[in-house]
Amino acid sequence: MDLTLLTDLNELRSARRAAILVTGLQDGRQRLVRAEDDLSSDPLADELRKRFRSGKSGTVETDSGDVFLTVSVPAPRLVIIGAVHISQALVPMAEIAGLDVTVIDPRTAFATEERFPGGMLRGDWPEDVFKEAPLDAYTAVAAVTHDPKIDDFPLMEALGTGCFYVGALGSRKTHGKRLERFEAAGLDPALFKRIDAPIGLDIGAASPQEIAVAVLGSIIHALRKGPEAAA
Q1: The whole model's pTM is what?
Q2: At 102, which helix (H) or strand (E)?
Q3: Are 213 and 205 in contact (CB under 8 A)?
Q4: CB–CB of 113/90 below 8 Å?
Q5: Residue pLDDT, tens place only, 172-225
């Protein structure tokens, strides 16, 4: 493998950025494709997009010979804003699904080790946590506190960062008021359709556990089908 390509790939991995190493199996020629590259003129565009979604490496047949796609995508993360009952149910489900989970809530009455054991809890304001662990395109954000003082900032940050999933708890009326605040804060209204609100798949969920299932379903759908799938 070309040393320059290897160095570039390692740097992308360290920065939690996705890339695919394309290797010609006949001539051994290699090139590196980044997730943010313009793929419109790439002959493998459709396959590359699919592989960025699935995270799976493999061989692809082309008119000029077979190529092997070595896919490197960051481990998906879930940031839950709010240490509430829904979050208690969602955490173990999301971990089983392979997500790296963080729960953020500055309210000491909710953010306790007894309710969220295992070290994933951060009892700080989201803006402080994000200084240490910034959001990125392979992060899902689910805001479930019902408190604009806590939810609004991470939701706007998630939209601006391009998180693959952005969900918010609340009725349509509550969400409408939320969007008014976001627009007043200068956020581009074109981004609003990215928010999954009311949060989760429309399966008639009522209990915190059922809502957690609905939320996880939306997150996985967005991860595998693309962010627009959750809108």
Answers
A1: 0.86
A2: strand 100-104
A3: yes
A4: no
A5: 999 999 999 999 999 999 999 999 999 999 999 999 999 999 999 999 999 988
CA atoms within 13 A on the CB side of 34: 14
Query: In the numeric block, which tokens belong to residue 73?
Result: 């995508």
Task: Write out pLDDT tens, residues 18-61.
Answer: 999 999 999 999 999 999 999 999 999 999 999 998 889 999 99
Contacts of 109 (CB under 8 A, 6+ apart): none
Q: How far does CA 218 lie from the centroid of its chain?
A: 11
Beta-bridge mates of residue 176: none
> What is the C-alpha separation between 60 and 51, in angstroms, rounded?
11
Per-residue DSSP letters for 106-147?
--TTT--TTTS-SS-EE-S-HHHHHHHS---TTEEEEE-S--
Q: Which helix (H) or strand (E) holds 225?
A: helix 208-225
The span from the CA of 32 to the CA of 35, in Å, is 10
Q: Which domains does the chain have, with CATH numbers?
A: 3-72 (no CATH), 77-230 (3.40.50.720)
- Please give the structure tokens belonging to residue 56: 């799976």
168-180 pLDDT, tens per residue?
Answer: 999 999 999 999 9
The closest of 28, 27, 29, 34 to 8, measured between CA atoms, is: 34
